Amino acid sequence: MSYSVETRERLERDAKEIIARYPKPRSALLPLLHLVQSEDGYISQDGIEFCAEQLGITPAQVTGVATFYTMYKREPVGEYHVGVCTNTLCAVMGGDQIWEELSEHLGVGHDEATPDGKISLERLECNAACDFAPVMMVNWEFFDNMTPEKARQLVDDLRAGKQVAPTRGPNRLCTWKEASRVLAGFPDGRAHEGVQAGPESLRGLEVAKRNGWTAPPADQAPDGGADGSADGRGDGQAEPGSQEGRNK
Amino acid sequence: MTTTLTPVLTRNWDQPDSFTREGYERAGGYRALRKALAMDPDAIVQAVKDSGLRGRGGAGFPTGMKWGFLPPSSPNPRYLVVNADESEPGTCKDIPLMMANPHVLVEGVIISSYAIRSNHAFIYVRGEVLHVIRRLQQAVAEAYEAGYLGKDILGSGYDLELVVHTGAGAYICGEETALLDSLEGYRGQPRLKPPFPAVAGLYGGPTVINNVESISSVPSIVANGPDWFASMGTEKSKGFGIFSLSGHVTRPGQYEAPLGVTLRELLDMAGGIRAGHRLKFWTPGGSSTPIFTEEHLDVPLDFESVGAAGSMLGTRALQIFDETTCVVRAVLRWSEFYAHESCGKCTPCREGTYWYKQMLKRLEAGQGTEEDLETLLDLSDNILGRAFCALGDGATSPVTSSIKRFRDEYVQHFEQGGCPFDPAASTLWGGDGK
Predict the structure, then answer these.
(1) Cα–Cα distance between B413 and B369 in angstroms, integer?
(2) What is the ipTM metric for this complex?
(3) Considering the entire predicted model, what is its pTM?
């Protein structure tokens, strides 16, 4: 099996565009693998051969790279690839329980897909959203502050074909293949959707605003912190705790 | 006296359009770029040196000095590469920064590239954060439209191409030379140093690799001057940084403060440890930094003080665990992470993390012996300083620091023949009365 003439022409146009971004063609390999994953849903043999041809390297060289990175899948994943963070902090905060319940609910394990091809599961390492723990990802979009109930509801909705919106992300989830295309460097025009920041991201800014705390103004920079003290420290500021209490 | 927060990079995050060029410019964005383009590039390097900015990606190397290592002339083009592969467990500052304020990074990239005389820059962003990638792609496109990128930027005669490059899931690519191999289209494995990237980096050319937050701090230094930046922080750890509180905290989140703030002060702002519980252990800068306990609440969170207290400031990733958490379970999970992410290039890390995992599993299940603890420490001695890169060193931190501070808890596991903790009690929903 190999790509149809139309598919190949389309992929070749995209590949050309990707390769042109870089001073050296080989740099295009990671985005090219995302590209073929956007076509096949995983790194197929056709995809490997396509990448090799585009870059003038061997399929073995492409395979060597593809197998190093966890986002490249060697088997088809679900239309919605669901990740549960089970690194220490998320695991402790409930990620382990979410994983166990979800895995049982769906009857699949790590990197396995449901028979209908809708959902696959993955145990994730830290996804840089620890202040929102426990965290889940679907097609690499953030689902924050999850619980076992919310997790079950989420996959049930996805299986039922309902529209689902990430906590911090676009207005609705895109499919695994669509996501892979964005990763290959082809924007889907949805950057403006969704919140600019989650509530947790704003916690410090809120405390600062409530207390009237700012960085020092540029024209009044105190002359140096060479005495070892932190000059961002204001005198006579109210204790933040008490200040917050007052504003509640 | 209380340390107060100093929002600079986070200042506009509460504006719904903070991630657009319009929103960023309304908050004063891209003014520093105009100022920078009228400056001599060397003057910008000097300003960054004078500011005392140290790398915000964990190692804390002085940013201006790193730039100064580039050879004055070289047959190969120079490159700036932004390390946006934020993956260290607990670290969660660059991702919200790029989601809410990608233009401050783009402006920082343009100014920094101009300063080091590079005409080609890359942002290497981890792949597992789709919406952040969309925001970066859009910010770069908007900067091109406005003439901030491309040929003859704002009529200055300076050219710069900026590429957003998406990774594919590998913690090791946060190691700067592994990142370069990955960006060149290979397996992400670290390179032997020297030569350092400043001399032979991307495609063999002189290359500067900086963390997202470091580069994002550059526009404010150019706009307000190095003295302004140095007026915050401590003597040797200048400026501000984003402190990320996570775990058993009443209000986890991002708190931008001068370096030198303490966990006690930050916890006070964050409403303390979750109700009815007390602090047990915490990481000052991610899982690769030795754990601290209650006795370190007043350690100033700057490079020197945290180092003197036996850990590392790292990425200011303050993962907070209360008394419901089993330290052996936490360390096992981190060790599983390092074993999973070890690139396999060197034996101490590849084999050492594998054995960590086996031994800690046994210990957590209550089947270990006191002798295992000695073996773990011996094994750690054979990884630390002998691994090819910092991943292996980092893997030893949770193991050795937990045995040092919580030896009794390990012993309790094999004395009881099992874990004495109820994992349900430490969950987000299990903390009250369970």
Answers:
(1) 9
(2) 0.96
(3) 0.94
